[in-house]
Amino acid sequence: MTSTNPPPQHVCAAFGVGADEPRLLDGGTGPVWRAQDVVLKPVASTAEAAWVAQTLDALRVDGVRLARPVRASDGRWVVSGWSAARYVAGRPEPRYDELVAVSLRLHEATAHLPRPRFLANRTDVWAVADRAAWGDGTPALDPATGGTQFAEVLGHRRPLALREQIVHGDLFGNVLFAGSAAPAVIDFSAYWRPPEWAAAVIVVDALAWGDADENLALRWAELAQWPQVLVRALLFRLAAHALHPRSTPASLAGLLRAVTLVRELL
Description:
Layout: H1 9-14, E1 23-24, E2 33-35, E3 38-42, H2 46-58, E4 65-66, E5 78-79, E6 82-86, H3 96-109, H4 125-133, H5 147-154, E7 165-168, E8 175-176, E9 184-185, E10 190-193, H6 195-209, H7 216-219, H8 226-243, H9 249-263
Parallel strand pairs: 4-9
Antiparallel strand pairs: 1-2, 2-3, 3-6, 5-6, 7-10, 8-9
Helix pairs in contact: 3-6, 4-8, 5-8, 6-8, 6-9, 8-9
């Protein structure tokens, strides 16, 4: 769902807010509406959204705020393609080492979670790119939007053996800082990958689009099999860029910076 229409009246009523209250929030990858302390957003998969809500409702992470899900009045997590969560204050900031640290703490807390069934059925751009990065499928990638660089980085991929678990695979931009308050995690994007990979995705994103300093990747080199998870993070972002219809030359230029900096560690 990509419409910027506000949540309908019956959805607002189900989550306990008035239909005239929601206002569209700026930023983000899709339309998100806030009414008082409740944030409502359309979801692509009811099964995935319900799993995320149920999981976050029970999850506790030391030193991290979570955007807690809100149940509808009848107990459902999703109503007519909409989910709700409590509003958390803050904004993304270029505190990238803290971001990686948040990722590691979060994934210590999610290490016990079983693999959800919906992951096997995902066919969105990011799911296809993730599988391509790990050698599970070979989608056709446009050379002009990242396919050429994907093929080049692919030559550096080697086998690795790390424990896979549930991770948030898109933390860059989805961790909010508010002064001295604990960082807040929003918009949980579930993947079944090693936690080191989730950290590597943050580093690649920060190098590509956050103007992070060139030593960021080196500072986390003690993480297990770090060069190879960086390779897979690069492959993931390059494949997604090549597949995404709204990719731009500017975003590809950022990825090329990340490729250059990571290659020095290989």
